Amino acid sequence: MNTLLSDTLGFVAWREAQQAAVEHALSGWVPLDAPAGLGEAMRYAVLDGGKRLRPLLVLATSAAVNGAPGAAMRAACAVELIHAYSLVHDDMPCMDNDVLRRGKPTVHVKFGEAQALLAGDALQALAFELLVPGDGSLEADMSVALCRLLALSAGAAGMAGGQAVDLASVGVALDQAALEAMHRQKTGALLQASVMMGAATGQTSEATRAQLARYGASLGLAFQVVDDILDVTADSATLGKTAGKDAACDKPTFVSLMGLDQAQAYADRVLDQAHEALRHSDLTHTDTLHALADWVGRRAH
What we know:
GO cellular component, one term: cytoplasm
Oligomer: single chain
Shape: globular
Keywords: Isoprene biosynthesis, Magnesium, Metal-binding, Transferase
InterPro entries: Isoprenoid_synthase_dom_sf, Polyprenyl_synt, Polyprenyl_synt_CS, Prenyl_diphosphate_synthase
GO molecular function, one term: prenyltransferase activity
Largest sheet: 2 strands, antiparallel
Family: Belongs to the FPP/GGPP synthase family.
């Protein structure tokens, strides 16, 4: 059997080093001294948990295009802050009403609903603050490009819009096209933006950006299919969140639509499309991006 790139020692060492670097940067940027305990709730939501896939995509793409490392780390942390804020809000009783995230109580369980809402708001604001530093360390054009990519992926045309569709689809039998469209917004938009923000830290051709966008879109869709599979096949301790929640809430998923085996086969096909896009990107150093796609896919195997 062929060894996945995600199994190689080089990739594992790179991933662990970058995860540690992101953790260190986030710890420095997420304030503890925000008033009335808000900083504690913010740091609880962000630090000491998660695989940091989105930051890793930013950093790997930036490296592939010879991007600016300082800009890449700011972009990596910004996208992780948006992801963390979305989890805080999604877990609240008014939405998914979940009590477990990353293996620990959700923020509203730990700190109360009002503090969780404010922590999410503050994390979202901090994400954009990182992309417009006052010390001149980011060129204005790059700051604008990064802010626009992140805002579009997080707003009504992206993650927030997809979550609205998700909430409206409980008990509704969506077809494959509608399910894909929802998840391209809810999950895929921020993952694709992570790739494109990495690309924005360097110089790329329009053709290369198009293939990177295709890679990011395919990876985002595959991630959600695998997530649906794991919701059925893994336990809560493994997931770090409540297993079986989608079925219990009567949410449409790729597994409920296709069945488990077909959903796995579909995830594999979509990941093949991500790899193909990288092969057509005209970039020479894409091994880490290939490995990240394998890492996403192997979660369900």
